[in-house]
Amino acid sequence: MKTNLYTLITGASEGFGRALAIECASRKMNLILVALPDSKLHLLAETLIQKYAIDVIAIEKDLSIEENCTMLHKQVEELEIPVNMLINNVGISSTAFFGEGSIGLYQKQVKLNVLATTLLTSLFLDMLKANKPSHILNVGSLSSFFYLAKKQVYGATKSYIYSFSKSLRGELSAEGINVSVICPGGMNTNETIIKTNKANNWLARQSIMNPEEVAPIAIKGLLSRKEIIIPGRMNKLFLLIDKLLPSFLIKMIANNHVNKFKSYSIGNYPINKGVYSGVLETTN
Ligand SMILES: NC(=O)c1ccc[n+]([C@@H]2O[C@H](COP(=O)([O-])OP(=O)(O)OC[C@H]3O[C@@H](n4cnc5c(N)ncnc54)[C@H](OP(=O)(O)O)[C@@H]3O)[C@@H](O)[C@H]2O)c1
C-alpha cells in the first residue's frame, strides 16, 4: 500500500540492508537509504524507483562519524520527509582474537554498531512520535546470546543492541512506537563472510541463510510488532540447545568451532591497520 511516509534504512547499499530495502520497496514503502559515499547507493535507488514506482532518496554518509548522524537527521528534517520507520542495520563484524585487532577496528565497531544506532534512534524519536504508529527495527545478531572467542567486541556490541531494544520497547510501546530486534545467524552478505561461511562445519552451514530470505521475515516480524525476531529453524534450535545444555558444554562446542575460523574483518575495515581516520582508508 503506497503512503507518503518513509522508511530509513542504514547500511543499505549491500548485504542485509540492501535486501531489506528491496523487501520494503516491494511493499510499496518509500525509502531513505544511507550508506558510505561511492557505494552504488544511487544505482539501487534508481532501480527501486523504476521497478516499484515509489520514492527513494539516497544519502551517502559515513555514520561512524557522530556529526554525520546529526547532519543526516537535519537533512531529512529540512526536506520535510516524514519518517515512520527506522531500520538501524549498519554494523561491521570481525572474527579475530582480541590481541590481533587494532584499537581502530574496535572503535569503528562501537561507533557504528552501538553509537550510530543510539544516536539515530534519539535524533529521529520526535519524528517517529509525530508519525505514529511507527516502528524501529534494530539489527542484532545471534552472537549477542553466545559469548564466543574471536567475537568479543562484535558480540558485546550486539548484546547492547539486544538489551537497548528490549528496554526501549517497554518505554515506547505506550507512545505508539513499536521496537523490534532481529537476531540473524550467519548470512551470505558479502565476499568475506561468504568465504568464511563456506569453511564452516556441516551443522553450522545448515543455519546459513541468504539475506533475501531473512529480509521478508524481518519486515513481517516488525510489522506484526514481534519483540525478538529469530530467522530460520536452525537458529531457533541453537538457542533452544543453549537453554537446555549446561553452559560449560556450550562454551566448549562453540569456542572449538569458532577457533577454527581464520581471522577476518569486513572490506573497509582491515583488522590491524592502526587507528582509522574519519575518512575511510580503502581495503588492503
Ligand atoms: N552477515 C552476517 O552473517 C550477519 C549476521 C548477523 C547480523 N548481521 C548484522 O547485519 C547488519 C548488516 O551486515 P551485512 O553482513 O549485511 O554487512 P555488509 O554486507 O558489510 O554491508 C554493510 C552495509 O553498511 C554500509 N556501511 C559500512 N560502513 C558504513 C559507514 N561507516 N557508514 C555508513 N554505511 C556504512 C555498507 O556500505 P558500503 O557498501 O559503502 O561499504 C553496506 O551498505 C550488521 O549490523 C551486522 O552486524 C550480519
Give your account of this protein's structure:
The protein has helices spanning 15-26, 41-52, 66-78, 103-130, 152-172, 191-198, 202-207, 211-223, 233-244, 247-259, and strands spanning 6-10, 30-35, 56-60, 83-88, 94-95, 134-139, 177-182, 228-229, 264-265. It is α/β, with parallel strands linked by helices and 284 residues long. The chain contains 10 helices and 9 strands. Strands 3-2-1-4-6-7-8 form a 7-stranded parallel sheet, sandwiched between helices. Strands 5-9 form a two-stranded antiparallel ribbon. Strand 2 (30-35), helix 2 (41-52) and strand 3 form a beta-alpha-beta unit. It has a single domain (6-265), classed as NAD(P)-binding Rossmann-like Domain (Rossmann fold, 3-Layer(aba) Sandwich). It binds NADP nicotinamide-adenine-dinucleotide phosphate. NADP nicotinamide-adenine-dinucleotide phosphate (NAP) binds at residues 11-17, 35-36, 39, 62-64, 89-91, 93, 112, 139, 141, 184, 186-187, 189-190, 193, 266-268.
Could you state the CATH homologous superfamily?
Answer: NAD(P)-binding Rossmann-like Domain
Ligands present: NADP nicotinamide-adenine-dinucleotide phosphate
Share of helix, binned: 40-55%
Overall 3D geometry? globular
User: Which class in CATH terms?
Assistant: Alpha Beta
- Spans of at least 5 consecutive residues whose pLDDT stays below 50 are 278-284
Q: CATH topology, what is it called?
A: Rossmann fold
Protein name: Short-chain dehydrogenase
Organism: Flavobacterium fluvii
GO molecular function, one term: oxidoreductase activity
InterPro entries: NAD(P)-bd_dom_sf, Sc_DH/Rdtase_CS, SDR_fam
